[in-house]
Amino acid sequence: MVGAARVDITPTPNSLWLPLNIYDNERLYVRAIVFNNDGVYGAFISCELAFIKDPIYKAANALVAAYLNTTTSNVIVSITHAHSAGPAGVTTANQYGNAALSTYPSVAEAALAAVEKALLVMRPAKVGYNTGSAYHNVNRDALNPLTGRWTQASNTSGPVDREVQVLTFLSTDATPEPLAAWTTIFSQQAAGDVNPLLRWTGTNNLASQNSIPVTGFELTHEPVEEAVRDAYVPFSKPDQHYIRQLFDELQALGIMVGEEVIRAMSLTSEWDSNPRIWSKQQNVTCPGRLRLDSAREGVQGTYTSGPDIDILTGVVGLGDIAVAWVGCEIFMRIGWRIKDDSSMNKTMLVAMSNGQSSSGVCKIVQRDIPSIGCAIDALQHILVLA
Question: Where are the chain's structural domains?
Answer without folding.
Answer: 1-122, 126-274, 277-385
